């Protein structure tokens, strides 16, 4: 196991930030760590990176205990915090060279991470001259510098434009093939694009831990939007089988929620035909990670 969390709890005064949470992450997994603001995401990441200590429980990173083997944990991880701390007066290569000395890695590694994170065109500049997106790249390059086994990334794509987003996502996916990546973000599309598994935390507790495709497809609930050719009464709509809720969104347009293993569009079409109606539009609204997240954490 690259990351093992067992009954970790953390309190800030009367507030319980983490409440006896447990999970494991294997090598080669890219795990998206999601939760509302204040759910405990950053607290856990700070515990895993040895910045703060848990009140209870045990956490291991790459087999090392975060409480008793802090230096070994730090050597095993590459960490990009949400608020990326950088020396703004240093040049990009100068900053990476300083950290290469700290980690005692070969200077040739500096060029490798500059290429990997797409920093070549900006590497001659001072960090303070860079855009927020390029500063994020410098932070990611620094996290990768010592070729760690585990990457812990807190909001890694903050401030990136759409093109940079795609590039950095590809970097994370590529390095994630032989590393463990634990990624916190508020951007659901980010998780859908690069993660294989999702952990959702709410009020300090893990409320979901599933493979991404299983999380989205596990529910048999379907939402169908239908427009008929004239207005009908809700008593008639309520006769549809497997219908759990319905909303008349506009005149002849209804949003229908079913629970069923089969595609209910054919049932809605047959219902319309049986009642002398025509369907002007009939669409199934696919669930995505965002809708699942809202349902779990509401």
Could you write a compact summary of the structure shown?
This protein is of the alpha/beta class and 298 residues long. It has helices spanning 41-48, 70-76, 92-103, 108-116, 132-144, 162-175, 188-194, 212-217, 234-237, 265-274, 289-297, and strands at 3-12, 15-25, 30-34, 56-61, 64-65, 77-80, 150-154, 180-184, 197-202, 205-211, 221-228, 243-250, 253-259, 279-285. It comes from Flavobacterium restrictum.
Structural account:
With 298 residues, the protein is an alpha/beta fold. The protein folds into two domains: 214 residues, 3-Layer(aba) Sandwich (Rossmann fold); 79 residues, 2-Layer Sandwich (Alpha-Beta Plaits), CATH 3.30.70.1560. 33% of the residues lie in helices and 31% in strands. The protein contains eleven helices and 14 strands. The strands form three sheets. It has a six-stranded mixed beta sheet with strand order 6-7-8-3-9-10, with helices on both faces. A hairpin with a 2-residue loop joins strand 9 and strand 10. Helix 4 packs across helix 5. The radius of gyration is 24 Å and the shape is elongated. The two termini are 32 Å apart.
Chart the SSEs and their pairings.
Elements lengths: L2 E10 L2 E11 L4 E5 L6 H8 L7 E6 L2 E2 L4 H7 E4 L11 H12 L4 H9 L15 H13 L5 E5 L7 H14 L4 E5 L3 H7 L2 E6 L2 E7 H6 L3 E8 L5 H4 L5 E8 L2 E7 L5 H10 L4 E7 L3 H9 L1
Parallel strand pairs: 3-8, 3-9, 6-7, 7-8
Antiparallel strand pairs: 1-2, 1-4, 4-5, 9-10, 11-13, 11-14, 12-13
